[in-house]
Amino acid sequence: MANFQAGPVPRDALAYFRDKDLRVGFDYQDVWGREHAHAFTVAKAMKLDILDDVRTGLDEALAEGKTFRDFSQGLKPKLQEKGWWGIKEEIDPNTGERRRVQLGSPRRLKTIYQSNLRSARSAGQWQRIQRTKESMPFLLYELGPSENHREQHVAWAGTLLPVDHPWWESHMTPNGYGCKCRVRQVSEVEAERLEREGIQNPLAEIETDPDTGLPTGRRRRATMPVRREAPPTRTVSFTNRRTGEITQVDQGLHPAWASNPGQDRVRILRDRMTSKVDTVDRRLAQATTEDVMGSPILDEWVRRPEGELPAGILDRQAQAVLGAETQVVRLAPGRLPDSGSVAVEDLRQLPGVISQGILIGRGEDLDVFRRRASEDGNPWWLATVRRGEDNQRLYLTDYRMATDKDLEQARSSGQVIRDSEQL
Q1: pLDDT above 90: percentage of residues in the chain
Q2: What are the backbone angles phi and psi of residue 322, rounded to the nearest 5°?
Q3: How many CB atoms are located within 10 Å of the residue 13 CB?
Q4: Is the pLDDT of residue 2 over 60?
Q5: Which candidate, 281, 275, 421, places its Cα nearest to that of 355?
Q6: How many Å apart are CA 423 and CA 418, to the nearest integer?
Q7: Residue 167: its pLDDT value, please?
Q8: Helix/strand/coil (H, E, C) string of the chain?
Q9: What does the pLDDT average to over 28-40?
Q10: What is the pLDDT of residue 121?
Q11: What pLDDT does residue 192 have?
Q12: Phi and psi at residue 382, in whole multiples of 5°?
């Protein structure tokens, strides 16, 4: 289970925190929802040096296992020296209005410390869950040690679902500011036992010592059944007063926490990796793309299509025809009309199809034909590439089997850029 006590955080958790970019913001709603996966911010910290001080203090606390007291004692004097402490007048950049606002305070530092510690540990835990899900394929939602629990979180306690169930995309803990709920990974054998025997009721009465009549702090033995189906969703709407954006979340989730930090980190890393492929020479880019498309990264993307993957590399001539500034063809959610109908093993062929196939320009599109090793009447792979609106990206918009007739029609109606396949 996730441990939120003092002590150095695991490597995966620290990497999640260190991957974030600095983002200034006047209000906590200026950086919203999944943006927290790649942006570190503190409301009212409008100067990068102050934001950097807070981040450095948190980095040391996470890496060295500092308690909140140690973190606060080290950071507070630095913030006071720079004037970021107490209640002061600040100008809201959105409205130009001068307002009296709370800058640094012990309570704010505690929220900053706890929120970042818990989200980092959650992201790290998710990476470990993914590595061990074959032997421990289930997660159990548990209440934490808080004295008072949110009503909806109590209703979720005892939920036992597969690791890859969609419910965990939004309900992976923590689920709000100050939330101490946790998930525990269990094996199939333990899941069956829990279904038979139930779990300890977290709200059972506290035992009383018979000699002193005082509470012992231990709860009476009382079981409750586990839930093997996702709890019903009660959707509520939340309006971000800074941007006007309306977010719909399950009741009991705070909109700023209604995502899975571990999944969000994977999505961000995919996007960054795809962008970096565009900065290297073509041969290295091709090798990297083949490695990615041949790895479990593609399997995970097909199962949960978030972020973008490099699907292939175009040569300069094809780039010029499309008017594109990038060599990377990206696999992105929602761009393929029916990506679920394409087998993973067929998607793995894309780097070779795109780099070696016959190229035919067709208006805004580029059709790429490459021969398949098949005798089923569809001897070609047809991949269609389209330039994004900003000229900065190329997307795969179609990928299917094609006939000789399809190729001949494309030749006759389009601009042939490369007339034969490359070996």
Answers
A1: 35
A2: -85, -10
A3: 28
A4: no
A5: 421
A6: 13
A7: 95
A8: CCCCCCCCCCHHHHHHHHCCEECCECCHHHCCHHHHHCEECCCCECCHHHHHHHHHHHHHHHHHCCCHHHHHHHHHHHHHHCCCCCEEEEECCCCCCEEEEECCCHHHHHHHHHHHHHHHHHHHHHHHHHHHCCCCCEEEEECCCCCCCCHHHHHHCCEEEECCCCCHHHHCCCCCCCCCCEEEEECHHHHHHHHHHCEECCCCCEEECCCCCCEEEEECCCEECCECCCCCCCEEEEECCCCCCEEEEECCCCHHHCCCHHHHHHHHHHHHHHHHHCCCCHHHHHHHHHHHHCCHHHHHHHHCCCCCEEEEECCHHHHHHHCCCCCEEEECCCCCCCHHHCCHHHHCCHHHHHHHCEEEEECCEEEEEEECCCCCCCCEEEEEEEECCCCCCEEEEEEEEECHHHHHHHHHHCEEEECCCCC
A9: 50
A10: 87
A11: 96
A12: -120, 115
pLDDT at residue 38 above 50? no
Radius of gyration of the chain (CA): 26
- Mean of the per-residue pLDDT values for the chain? 84
